[in-house]
Design brief:
This protein is an alpha/beta fold. Helices cover about 25% and strands about 25% of the residues. It has two domains: about 260 residues, Ribonuclease Z/Hydroxyacylglutathione hydrolase-like (Metallo-beta-lactamase, Chain A), CATH 3.60.15.10; about 40 residues, no CATH class. Helix 8 runs parallel beside helix 9.
């Protein structure tokens, strides 16, 4: 099966903490890397994880709060120092553009590559990017500033060839791609071997949803239906429910309720408040509602 991994570089919230760095993740799909949010320390964490920066082409920012974007200046500058020439694409709400423009004009004037900004409408669930491997959709969230999450959907995979059938019918391996695309095979005597006999069904396409800072929003569940891995912010526990509402955040229990609503296969919680001293209690709160819950942690990789 092709690679589809989520690497956690940071899963803390805005208040500095000895335990966590601000929000930053890297989604790895079929050899390509896509960054989601870019808090402080992103480039240092990147080097610790050992991912090559040359494979990073797109950064998706959820909103303009500093704990989600203050890592951009250093990361962009370092890429320039490393001799990057390929374009870098930043997808973000409109209010991030002045910040990015200032960074580029002040610190990154003579880089050997271009940084292109793509505005994301945070009020819409819409396709914001696609390539041969994935589609990325925006997810309207409710926070104190314009904010959106991102849904990564793998494009359908091709079926698997059956090597034993290729050998049986003496089919050249050079025809493998044609047969994966649906072609039948015609024998020298004119007999047609149907494609279904030569292939096995493709692996199911996978999906990953990143729900950054947001109030609990049940309406998201229809867009997240059946997601393989749901990352949902869980800044507070239920004992701080009022604080969560006041600041535009969710609790661990609410994150788990979202996973139930959308029939997610697994839930990953993060964006932990500096108030949290015992994350196992946070985990228990979520697993009481949704047993397949995991805690985000810097350096961890989650495979889909």
């Amino acid at each position: 099966m092709e690679t589809f991994n989520v690497h956690i570089l940071g899963c803390g919230s805005a208040k500095p903490s000895n335990g966590h760095l601000p929000s930053c993740q890297v989604v790895e799909v079929r050899g390509k890397l896509y960054m989601v949010d870019c808090g402080e320390g992103a480039q240092m964490q990147w080097s610790r994880v050992g991912l090559g920066m040359t494979r990073l082409g797109h950064i998706f920012i959820s909103h303009s709060h500093g704990d989600h974007c203050f890592g951009l200046p250093g990361l962009i500058s370092t890429m320039g120092l490393l001799g990057r020439t390929a374009e870098l694409h930043v997808h973000a709400p409109a209010d991030l553009r002045p910040f990015l423009d200032c960074v580029l004009a002040t610190f990154c004037k003579d880089m050997g590559y271009r940084v292109l900004f793509h505005e994301v409408d945070t009020s819409q669930h819409a396709l914001v990017f696609e390539d041969r491997s994935i589609e990325v959709w925006s997810l309207p969230l409710r926070h104190r500033v314009p904010c959106c999450g991102y849904l990564f959907r793998e494009k359908p995979l091709l079926p698997h060839i059956r090597p034993e059938m290729f050998a049986c019918y003496d089919i050249p391996l050079s025809q493998a791609n044609n047969i994966k695309m649906g072609m039948d095979w015609t024998m020298p005597d004119g007999e047609v071997i149907p494609n279904a006999r030569l292939t096995r069904p493709a692996d199911a396409a996978r999906s990953y949803a990143y729900c950054s800072d947001t109030l609990f929003t049940p309406s998201l569940s229809s867009w997240l239906a059946g997601v393989d891995l749901l990352y949902h912010e869980a800044t507070f526990g239920e004992d701080y429910l009022l604080r969560a509402k006041q600041t535009g955040h969710s609790t661990a229990r609410q994150a788990a309720e979202m996973a139930v609503l959308c029939h997610a296969k697994r839930l990953l919680v993060g964006h932990f408040s500096g108030r949290i001293k015992d994350e196992t209690a946070h985990l228990r709160e979520a697993t009481d509602v949704f047993p397949e819950t995991l805690l985000a942690s810097e350096g961890k990789t989650f495979e889909l």
